[in-house]
Amino acid sequence: MTARGGHHTSHPKHPGSSEHSP
Fold this sequence. Notes:
Layout: no helix or strand
């Protein structure tokens, strides 16, 4: 599910994956 932040890192459930670094 990668349609929120756009960048699926370690937490695809975060609305700001690009902002929250793993």
